[in-house]
Amino acid sequence: MTTTLVWLRHSLRLRDHPALVDADLASNTFNWQWTAGCGADAQPFFRIFNPVSQSERYNPSGECIRRYVPELEPLPDEGLHVPWTTTEARLDALGVTLGETYPRPMVDHSDAREKALDAYQTVK
Description:
With 124 residues, the protein is an all-alpha fold. It has 2 domains: 2-36, no CATH class; 51-123, DNA Cyclobutane Dipyrimidine Photolyase, subunit A, domain 3 (Orthogonal Bundle), CATH 1.10.579.10. It has helices spanning 2-15, 25-36, 51-58, 63-68, 77-80, 88-94, 109-123. Helix 1 packs antiparallel against helix 2.
């Protein structure tokens, strides 16, 4: 019940903000279910998406990043999806400071993926 209310609250909030690109009740509601892994077409537990790989595959030009993350707009294509791998000197020259103008990575994806898979194995 509580989870349902969370979905409803978020869906209503999206509809109240017409500036959002995807303020679509059906799409957002089912996406919440899919993300939570409880939808009719939930993904297998072992499929853990890598946000960098997804970004590189589905937005290779970086158009979406440049549009919605203006802090990274000055980065060249090769560093756009992984700005934390660009040298500090290069970032400084472009006006980007990790931890200030753009956050540092919160987790190491490889480590987090392994921990998640280990945790899934314990409850499988």
